[in-house]
TrEMBL record:
Domain of life: Bacteria
GO molecular function, one term: transaminase activity
Organism of origin: Algoriphagus lacus
Presence of the UniProt keyword Transferase in the record: yes
SUPFAM superfamilies associated with the record: PLP-dependent transferases
Protein name: DegT/DnrJ/EryC1/StrS family aminotransferase
Similarity comment: Belongs to the DegT/DnrJ/EryC1 family.
Length: 375
């Protein structure tokens, strides 16, 4: 058995090597490294796949969030509601733009922001909400969108971990993660479900005037070269990355199915193990399992992590510290005890290896070792 990895990008590459290599070679042949035709082609392909009217490629998922907030004209001092339990990027761009992050706790089973608490987070300065579709399934978008619409707040979906997840509204309407709110953002970091071979990101919207603004801000605030209508940033998806992503997008459904197969096998193996809580499935969303994350009870998480490490099984803690308690963000007034669910989760979550190339014998070994820890 090969050494087990959290994500096996090498085996994945080997399986699509022919397609990827020729896509890269084509870029090399034309040397259109920036804004080559592959960028537009990929954006169109991704729009077609997700059902978003507009896709604006950019340099990474963090830029995508920043550009989204700039395009929505959020002004310094404005407040944006964000979950305390997520990756730092979401809150980082809020702080960078001089906005104020207003943290909200998450639900203990699906990890989405606790929408019951939205009302209590409102102030006259609230301008937006950023639901994060953590680990690969959608937040309760129906509730969040209704809530936001009534108060004229903007909704930016952080879809970095959930590309391809499908949400069903109570009236039967079906749409993909990232296309539900005013703007959706995603990341093509190599380990993400649709990952490139470097950095990359994209922004989704169904609103044409917002799309134009997003495009302009991502390109130095210009529509016409050297004429700058607004302050922008330089955030581009490389042609090479776009070419690779076009190839990989054709495999995304198959990748999501593989991840689900791995998750189902883990679920079946762990659902009756005392001390383990398996991932809960959100009611109205499919899951694309960017992470397969267990909750380990009885204060045993770190001990299990160490035990697995000894058996050469990697595992990861996403995330060890909630954002309101991160040193950089203490200035926003966070204190221990403010968000008990997020704080507790940071002590309990453990993500196991999950990827598109997981072999049955590898997974059997992981299952056997995790189970043996609890017996
Ligand atoms: C990965 C990630 C990002 C940032 O994406 P980058 O491409 O690394 O900038 C943002 N939010 C979440 C939830 C992520 O997982």
């Amino acid at each position: 058995m090969q050494s087990i990895q959290m994500v096996d990008l090498r085996s994945q590459y080997e399986r699509i090597k022919g397609e990827v290599d020729s896509a890269i070679q084509e870029v090399l042949n034309t040397t259109a490294f920036i804004n080559g035709p592959q960028v537009k082609k990929f954006a169109e392909k991704l729009a077609n796949y997700t059902g978003a009217k507009h896709v604006i490629p950019c340099a990474n998922g963090t830029d995508a969030l920043q550009i989204a907030m700039m395009a929505l004209d959020f002004k310094p001092g404005d407040e944006v509601i964000v979950p305390a339990f997520t990756y730092v990027a979401t809150v980082e761009v809020i702080a960078l733009l001089g906005l104020k992050p207003v943290f909200i706790d998450v639900l203990p089973d699906t990890y989405e922001l606790d929408y019951h608490q939205l009302e209590s987070k409102l102030s006259p300065k609230t301008v937006g909400i950023v639901p994060v579709h953590l680990y690969g399934q959608c937040s309760n978008m129906e509730y969040i969108l209704d809530f936001a619409r009534n108060l004229n707040l903007k909704v930016i979906e952080d879809t970095a971990q959930a590309i391809g997840a499908v949400y069903t509204f109570s009236d039967g309407r079906v749409a993909q993660a990232g296309t539900l709110g005013d703007i959706g953002t995603t990341s093509f970091f190599p380990s993400k479900n649709l990952g490139c071979y470097g950095d990359g990101g994209a922004i989704f919207t169904n609103n044409s005037s917002l799309a134009e603004k997003l495009q302009m801000i991502a390109n130095h605030g210009q529509k016409k070269k050297y004429f700058h209508d607004s302050i922008g940033v330089n955030s581009r998806l490389d042609t090479m990355q776009a070419a690779i992503l076009s190839v990989k997008l054709d495999h995304l459904n198959e990748y999501s199915s593989s991840r689900n197969r791995v998750a189902d096998r883990y679920d079946a193996a762990f659902k009756n193990v005392k001390g383990i809580i398996i991932p809960a499935r959100a009611k109205n969303s499919t899951h694309v399992f960017h992470q397969y994350t267990l909750q380990i009870e009885g204060g045993k998480r770190d001990e299990l992590k160490f035990f697995l490490q000894e058996k050469e099984i990697p595992s990861m803690i996403y995330y060890p510290v909630p954002l309101h308690l991160q040193k950089a963000y203490l200035e926003f007034g966070g204190k221990e005890g403010d968000f008990p669910i997020s704080e507790e989760l940071c002590k309990k979550v453990l993500s196991l290896p999950i990827h598109t190339e997981m072999k049955t014998d590898e997974q059997d070994y992981i299952i056997e070792m995790v189970s043996s820890f609890f017996n």
